[in-house]
Protein backbone atom coordinates (compact mmCIF):
# COMPACT_ATOMS: atom_id res chain seq x y z
CA UNK A 1 0.00 0.00 0.00
CA UNK A 2 2.87 2.40 0.85
CA UNK A 3 4.50 1.70 -2.52
CA UNK A 4 1.20 2.41 -4.31
CA UNK A 5 0.84 5.74 -2.49
CA UNK A 6 4.42 6.64 -3.41
CA UNK A 7 3.68 5.98 -7.09
CA UNK A 8 0.55 8.15 -6.96
CA UNK A 9 2.33 11.02 -5.20
CA UNK A 10 5.19 10.82 -7.68
CA UNK A 11 2.81 10.96 -10.63
CA UNK A 12 0.97 13.96 -9.22
CA UNK A 13 4.28 15.77 -8.70
CA UNK A 14 5.27 15.65 -12.37
CA UNK A 15 6.56 19.02 -13.58
CA UNK A 16 4.33 21.47 -15.39
CA UNK A 17 5.96 20.56 -18.71
CA UNK A 18 4.17 17.20 -18.67
CA UNK A 19 0.83 16.80 -20.38
CA UNK A 20 -1.24 16.77 -17.19
CA UNK A 21 -4.96 17.49 -16.82
CA UNK A 22 -7.72 17.13 -14.27
CA UNK A 23 -10.91 15.50 -15.48
CA UNK A 24 -14.39 14.47 -14.38
CA UNK A 25 -16.26 11.43 -15.66
CA UNK A 26 -19.78 10.07 -15.40
CA UNK A 27 -20.70 6.49 -16.34
CA UNK A 28 -23.84 4.43 -16.61
CA UNK A 29 -23.68 0.68 -16.97
CA UNK A 30 -25.07 -2.73 -16.17
CA UNK A 31 -23.62 -4.46 -13.10
CA UNK A 32 -23.98 -8.11 -12.11
CA UNK A 33 -23.20 -8.72 -8.44
CA UNK A 34 -22.85 -12.38 -7.48
CA UNK A 35 -22.87 -13.76 -3.94
CA UNK A 36 -21.28 -17.17 -3.37
CA UNK A 37 -21.54 -18.91 -0.02
CA UNK A 38 -24.24 -17.96 2.45
CA UNK A 39 -26.29 -15.81 0.06
CA UNK A 40 -26.36 -17.83 -3.14
CA UNK A 41 -29.89 -16.78 -4.06
CA UNK A 42 -29.28 -13.03 -3.73
CA UNK A 43 -27.48 -12.34 -7.00
CA UNK A 44 -28.54 -9.08 -8.58
CA UNK A 45 -28.23 -7.38 -11.93
CA UNK A 46 -28.79 -3.63 -11.84
CA UNK A 47 -28.10 -0.39 -13.65
CA UNK A 48 -25.00 1.02 -11.93
CA UNK A 49 -24.19 4.75 -12.11
CA UNK A 50 -20.76 6.07 -11.14
CA UNK A 51 -18.95 9.41 -10.97
CA UNK A 52 -15.21 10.03 -10.86
CA UNK A 53 -12.65 12.78 -10.49
CA UNK A 54 -9.26 12.07 -12.00
CA UNK A 55 -5.84 13.32 -13.00
CA UNK A 56 -4.13 12.51 -16.29
CA UNK A 57 -0.35 12.51 -16.78
CA UNK A 58 0.59 11.64 -20.36
CA UNK A 59 -0.72 8.07 -20.84
CA UNK A 60 -1.43 7.49 -17.14
CA UNK A 61 -4.72 8.29 -15.41
CA UNK A 62 -5.58 8.17 -11.71
CA UNK A 63 -9.16 8.48 -10.50
CA UNK A 64 -11.28 8.49 -7.36
CA UNK A 65 -14.85 7.29 -7.90
CA UNK A 66 -18.15 6.46 -6.26
CA UNK A 67 -20.23 3.58 -7.66
CA UNK A 68 -23.73 2.46 -6.67
CA UNK A 69 -24.14 -1.23 -7.54
CA UNK A 70 -27.85 -1.36 -6.73
CA UNK A 71 -30.45 -2.63 -4.28
CA UNK A 72 -32.53 -5.78 -4.56
CA UNK A 73 -35.68 -6.67 -2.62
CA UNK A 74 -36.53 -10.35 -2.25
CA UNK A 75 -39.02 -12.67 -0.58
CA UNK A 76 -39.20 -16.41 0.06
CA UNK A 77 -41.58 -19.11 1.31
CA UNK A 78 -40.34 -22.54 2.39
CA UNK A 79 -43.07 -25.13 2.98
CA UNK A 80 -41.73 -27.97 5.14
CA UNK A 81 -45.00 -29.93 5.24
CA UNK A 82 -48.75 -29.30 5.41
CA UNK A 83 -48.50 -27.18 8.58
CA UNK A 84 -44.85 -26.13 8.99
CA UNK A 85 -43.34 -23.33 6.93
CA UNK A 86 -40.94 -20.40 6.95
CA UNK A 87 -41.40 -17.18 5.02
CA UNK A 88 -39.68 -13.84 4.92
CA UNK A 89 -38.49 -10.86 2.95
CA UNK A 90 -35.52 -8.58 2.87
CA UNK A 91 -33.18 -6.43 0.84
CA UNK A 92 -29.54 -6.23 -0.16
CA UNK A 93 -27.61 -3.12 -1.22
CA UNK A 94 -24.03 -2.54 -2.38
CA UNK A 95 -22.00 0.61 -3.02
CA UNK A 96 -18.37 1.65 -2.89
CA UNK A 97 -15.60 4.21 -3.27
CA UNK A 98 -12.62 3.33 -5.43
CA UNK A 99 -9.17 4.42 -6.59
CA UNK A 100 -8.15 3.43 -10.12
CA UNK A 101 -4.86 3.56 -11.99
CA UNK A 102 -5.20 3.27 -15.78
CA UNK A 103 -2.91 3.28 -18.80
CA UNK A 104 -4.06 4.63 -22.17
CA UNK A 105 -2.44 3.16 -25.29
CA UNK A 106 -1.70 6.06 -27.63
CA UNK A 107 -2.22 4.83 -31.20
CA UNK A 108 -2.11 8.35 -32.71
CA UNK A 109 -5.80 8.05 -33.56
CA UNK A 110 -8.88 9.29 -31.66
CA UNK A 111 -9.54 5.78 -30.30
CA UNK A 112 -7.44 4.82 -27.24
CA UNK A 113 -7.68 1.39 -25.60
CA UNK A 114 -6.84 1.23 -21.89
CA UNK A 115 -6.25 -1.20 -19.06
CA UNK A 116 -6.24 -0.60 -15.33
CA UNK A 117 -6.61 -1.78 -11.76
CA UNK A 118 -8.96 -0.62 -9.02
CA UNK A 119 -8.82 -0.74 -5.22
CA UNK A 120 -12.05 -0.04 -3.39
CA UNK A 121 -13.81 0.31 -0.06
CA UNK A 122 -17.27 -1.25 -0.36
CA UNK A 123 -20.33 -1.42 1.85
CA UNK A 124 -22.75 -4.35 1.59
CA UNK A 125 -25.96 -4.07 3.62
CA UNK A 126 -28.42 -6.93 4.18
CA UNK A 127 -31.78 -6.86 5.96
CA UNK A 128 -34.02 -9.90 6.49
CA UNK A 129 -37.26 -10.46 8.42
CA UNK A 130 -38.70 -13.98 8.76
CA UNK A 131 -41.62 -15.89 10.28
CA UNK A 132 -41.40 -19.59 11.14
CA UNK A 133 -44.40 -21.74 12.06
CA UNK A 134 -44.05 -25.32 13.31
CA UNK A 135 -45.39 -27.67 15.96
CA UNK A 136 -43.54 -25.73 18.67
CA UNK A 137 -45.22 -22.44 17.90
CA UNK A 138 -44.91 -19.23 15.95
CA UNK A 139 -41.52 -17.49 15.76
CA UNK A 140 -40.38 -14.22 14.22
CA UNK A 141 -36.85 -13.05 13.59
CA UNK A 142 -34.79 -10.39 11.89
CA UNK A 143 -31.22 -10.16 10.67
CA UNK A 144 -29.57 -6.84 9.83
CA UNK A 145 -25.98 -6.93 8.60
CA UNK A 146 -23.65 -4.24 7.30
CA UNK A 147 -20.18 -5.13 6.04
CA UNK A 148 -17.53 -2.60 4.96
CA UNK A 149 -14.67 -4.34 3.18
CA UNK A 150 -11.73 -3.66 0.89
CA UNK A 151 -11.98 -4.92 -2.68
CA UNK A 152 -9.90 -5.09 -5.85
CA UNK A 153 -10.42 -5.55 -9.54
CA UNK A 154 -9.30 -5.02 -13.14
CA UNK A 155 -10.63 -2.70 -15.84
CA UNK A 156 -10.34 -2.55 -19.61
CA UNK A 157 -11.93 -0.51 -22.34
CA UNK A 158 -11.46 2.23 -24.89
CA UNK A 159 -12.15 5.93 -25.18
CA UNK A 160 -12.89 7.97 -28.28
CA UNK A 161 -11.90 11.63 -28.37
CA UNK A 162 -14.96 13.62 -29.49
CA UNK A 163 -13.36 17.04 -28.99
CA UNK A 164 -10.16 18.35 -27.42
CA UNK A 165 -11.78 18.17 -23.98
CA UNK A 166 -14.54 15.55 -24.30
CA UNK A 167 -14.15 11.78 -24.71
CA UNK A 168 -16.64 8.92 -24.97
CA UNK A 169 -15.62 6.00 -22.76
CA UNK A 170 -16.75 2.36 -22.79
CA UNK A 171 -15.36 -0.42 -20.64
CA UNK A 172 -15.72 -3.66 -18.74
CA UNK A 173 -14.77 -4.48 -15.16
CA UNK A 174 -14.30 -7.52 -12.96
CA UNK A 175 -14.01 -7.08 -9.19
CA UNK A 176 -14.03 -8.79 -5.80
CA UNK A 177 -16.10 -6.33 -3.79
CA UNK A 178 -16.02 -8.06 -0.41
CA UNK A 179 -15.49 -11.25 1.52
CA UNK A 180 -17.16 -11.83 4.88
CA UNK A 181 -18.08 -14.87 6.98
CA UNK A 182 -18.51 -17.62 4.36
CA UNK A 183 -19.65 -15.26 1.60
CA UNK A 184 -17.70 -13.80 -1.33
CA UNK A 185 -19.13 -10.89 -3.33
CA UNK A 186 -17.95 -10.62 -6.95
CA UNK A 187 -19.02 -8.01 -9.48
CA UNK A 188 -18.67 -7.71 -13.22
CA UNK A 189 -20.23 -5.30 -15.64
CA UNK A 190 -20.09 -3.03 -18.66
CA UNK A 191 -20.36 0.74 -18.71
CA UNK A 192 -20.37 3.74 -21.01
CA UNK A 193 -19.82 7.37 -20.12
CA UNK A 194 -18.36 10.77 -20.89
CA UNK A 195 -15.05 12.21 -19.66
CA UNK A 196 -14.35 15.94 -19.64
CA UNK A 197 -10.77 17.16 -19.32
CA UNK A 198 -10.07 20.67 -18.03
Automatic annotation (TrEMBL):
It holds the Pfam family Opacity. Keywords: Signal. GO terms for molecular function: porin activity. Residues 1-20 form the signal peptide. One of its GO terms (cellular component) is cell outer membrane. InterPro entries: OMP/PagP_B-barrel, Porin_opacity. This is Opacity protein-like surface antigen.
